Amino acid sequence: MEFLDHLFKHQSYDKNNFFLIAGPCVVESEGLVMEVADKVSKICSNLGIPYVFKASYRKANRTSASSFTGIGDENGLALVKKVGEKYKLPTTSDIHAHDEAAPAAQYVDILQIPAFLCRQTDLLLAAAATGKVVNVKKGQFLSGLSMKFAVEKIRNAGNDKILLTERGTTFGYQDLVVDYRNIPWMQEHKTPVVMDCTHSLQQPNQTSGVTGGNPQLIGTIAKAAIATGANGLFIETHPDPASAKSDGANMLRLDLLEPLLQQLVKIRKAVV
């Protein structure tokens, strides 16, 4: 896809490789986002992996009203932009309402639409109108084939720069499963497809008010995604997930990222 070439124009990478969207769940501090971006960008450069830095400037979809949501919208967005400028990386953050699209687009290269909101027409149209790349996460309640309607909304608004992300399917009340048929199914919509290797391992709706997870299976999800043809991977990572202010239960510890990516590059070479 030409828009991906433009997105990664400042990076040297293997054209046959998958791309990576990675970073902490939410902007907690300048120190955190800089540490993660510095380490991940070096790893990706060494492995020839094109890299997008990810951090949410605000978390609007928390289970409990007492959960951490961010350091302030302007502060969070400014730090994401600062990371992109310092390390010459494309950046992304999620938006939750139509009136967030235009302001966020001034700071990031990719607008991410949360899975819960993938059917919100006004949100999709507002994101499309910015001209930015729009990454729509597949709803936990939808099949990959039914994501054609989200794609059509964005394309009909004049924007063909679309990513689709698989992030698991609701299985009962407190679990998710990954149906890998959704990767080729969503590629039928002529969009690159990303596998969210961390949120697909969430165990939501816990009575404690804090989402659980199975981070020990991140490698399993990622390897299967590459083997089934995913164009990109989404991995939230943190130096100390136990102390993270959001989604710590399903993030990958930062020091485990490099050996996993080394394995994934080998798998990619074997299947392309």
Secondary structure layout:
Elements: H1 2-7, E1 19-23, H2 30-47, E2 51-54, H3 73-87, E3 91-94, H4 98-105, E4 110-113, H5 121-129, E5 133-137, H6 148-156, E6 162-166, E7 169-170, E8 176-177, H7 182-187, E9 193-196, E10 202-203, E11 212-213, H8 218-227, E12 232-238, E13 252-253, H9 257-271
Parallel strand pairs: 1-2, 1-12, 2-3, 3-4, 4-5, 5-6, 6-9, 9-12, 12-13
Antiparallel strand pairs: 7-8, 10-11
Helix pairs in contact: 2-3, 2-9, 4-5, 5-6, 8-9
Structure explained in plain terms:
Helix 6 (148-156) links the parallel strand 5 and strand 6. The strands form 3 sheets. This protein has an 8-stranded parallel barrel, surrounded by 6 helices. It has one domain (2-271): TIM Barrel. Helices cover 35% and strands 18% of the residues. It has 272 residues and is an alpha/beta fold.
How would you sum up this structure in a few lines?
This protein is α/β, with parallel strands linked by helices.
Structural key phrases:
single chain; about 270 residues; alpha/beta; TIM Barrel; eight-stranded parallel β-barrel; 9 helices
